[in-house]
Specification:
CATH topology: Thrombin, subunit H
Protein name: PilZ domain-containing protein
CATH architecture: Beta Barrel
Shape: globular
CATH class: Mainly Beta
Helix content: under 10%
Structural class: mainly beta
Number of helices: 1
Pfam families: PilZ (PF07238)
Radius of gyration: 13 Å
InterPro entries: PilZ_domain
Order of helices and strands: EEEEEEEH
Largest sheet: 6 strands, antiparallel, barrel
Low-confidence stretches: none
Length: about 100
């Protein structure tokens, strides 16, 4: 599993196991289906046949829950961890812009 350990923090929001089909949009405008397997206020875990890169910014759309920009934080095979870009701090915004 690839993870950036430099900014590991204790989770502030508990994650809940789910099974939701969602739509993921990448920077070039392509959209594809993914399966969200756990969800919290700050992020989610999903399964995707489309390869994603750590640091990549994506748009996640969950039916009935709206859309949210997120950044890929880790990957393990076809499983990915996303952190929602909530704009809570300048540091998070800067990381999203530079892909770290």
């Amino acid at each position: 599993m690839e993870r950036e350990t430099i900014d590991w923090k204790t989770r502030v929001a508990p994650r809940r196991g789910v099974s939701h089909t969602a739509s993921l949009e990448v920077a070039d405008g392509r959209r594809f289906r993914v399966l969200v397997t756990n969800l919290s206020y700050t992020g989610c875990q999903l399964l995707s046949e489309q390869r994603l890169e750590i640091g990549q910014t994506v748009g996640l759309s969950l039916p009935g829950r709206g859309s949210m920009d997120a950044q890929v934080r880790w990957t393990a095979g076809d499983c990915y961890g996303l952190q929602f870009l909530l704009g809570q701090s300048t540091v998070e915004d800067r990381r999203a812009r530079i892909g770290v």
